[in-house]
Amino acid sequence: MSFEERVRKKLRKKEKKYETEQLMKEKRSEEYEVLEEVFDRSTLMVIYDFMNKGTIDEIYGVVKAGKESRVYWGKDKDGKELAIKIYLTVSAEFRKGILKYIEGDPRFRNVKRDTRSLIFAWAQKEFRNLEQATAAKVRVPKPIAVRNNVLIMEFIGKNGVCAPSMKEQTPENPEKIYKILLKYLKRLYSKAELVHGDLSEYNIMIWKGRPILFDMSQAVPLAHPLADFLLRRDLNNLNKFFKKLGVKVLSAEECYRMVTGYG
Q1: How many secondary structure helices (H) and strands (E) does the chain include?
Q2: β-strands 81-87, 143-147: how paired?
Q3: Taking the alpha carbons of 170, 176, 179, 185 in that order, is the dihedral positive or negative?
Q4: Catalytic position from the list 40, 49, 76, 198
Q5: Rounded to an integer, what distance in angstroms lies between the CA atom of residue 13 and that of residue 7?
Q6: Is 57 exposed, middle or buried (0-12, 13-18, 19+ CB in 10 A)?
Q7: 76 in active site
Q8: Of these residues, 49, 215, 228, 234, which one is catalytic?
Q9: Tens of each residue's pLDDT in the chain, 263 residues
C-alpha cells in the first residue's frame, strides 16, 4: 500500500469512528470524500497534520467556492468554528494575475516563480496581511495557522452560515459603516502599512452591525509600486457603493488625505 493510500485509509477510518460515535446525533458531513477527490497528496497531508495536532477537529461543507480556492467550514478541538481556505492548483491566468502583487512585495522578493511556490507564497501573504491588519485593530478574520496552500482563519458567521457581504445585504446604517470603513483603511495604511487592493462591496462582510474586511491575499505594503494606485481604486469603489445608498461621501481627494495624511 502506497503512502498516499495509507493517508486516505486513515481519513476514512477517522470518519467511520466519528459516524459510530455520533450515530444518534447530527449526521456527519461527507466532505472527507470530497477532499480526497479534489485535493492532491500534499494538501491532504497538511490537512491530516492539522487534524492530528487538534488545530482542525472536523471539516464540514464548502461555504465559498471559486476558481482559485475553496473555503470549508470546520471546528477545532474546542468546538470553535473555523474557516479553512484551501488554494487550488491555479490556471495560467490566475498565476499571471497574482504575480504583480507578489513581485513588488519586499516580504516575498525571493519567492520562486513555479506555480506551487507562488501559491504557497500567496497563502503566506494572506496570513501575514491578516496578522498585520489584526494588530492594527482592523476587523478581519483572525488568522490561526497556515501551511503550504492551506490557511485557517476565524469563521465569520454562525453554525456554518457565513455573515453576508455588503453586496448580499445592504447595511442598515450605511453612513456609520462608511465612516468605520474609512477609519479601517486609515489604520490599515498608517499602522499595518498595507493597502487592501481589491476593496468593494463583495469582500466586506457585515457581522453584528460592523464591517469586516476579508479576501486579504492581494493586500500590498506601502512600498509596493502599485500601492498608491490600488488605494485610490479602493476609495473610489467605496465611494461609488455608498453614494448609491444615499450617503454623502467625501471627495476622492478628501478620502485620500484622510487615509494617508498627505495633501
Answers
A1: 8, 11
A2: unpaired
A3: negative
A4: 198
A5: 10
A6: middle
A7: no
A8: 215
A9: 666 676 676 666 666 655 545 543 443 445 555 565 567 788 889 998 999 998 999 998 889 887 788 999 999 999 999 999 998 866 666 777 777 788 777 777 777 877 788 888 889 999 999 999 999 999 999 999 999 999 999 999 999 999 999 999 999 999 999 999 999 999 999 999 999 999 999 999 999 999 999 999 999 999 999 999 999 999 999 999 999 999 999 999 999 999 998 75
Whether 215 is catalytic: yes
Give the Å distances, CA to CA, from 2 to 7, 8, 9, 23, 154: 9, 10, 11, 31, 35
- The CATH homologous superfamily of the domain defined by 3-158: Phosphorylase Kinase; domain 1 (3.30.200.20)
CATH of 163-260, one of 3.40.50.460, 1.10.510.10, 2.70.50.60, 2.40.128.20: 1.10.510.10
Output DSSP code: residue 162: E
Q: According to CATH, where is 3.30.200.20 located in the chain?
A: 3-158
Which amino acid is residue 76, in one-letter code?
A: D
**Residue ranges of the chain that CATH labels 1.10.510.10:** 163-260
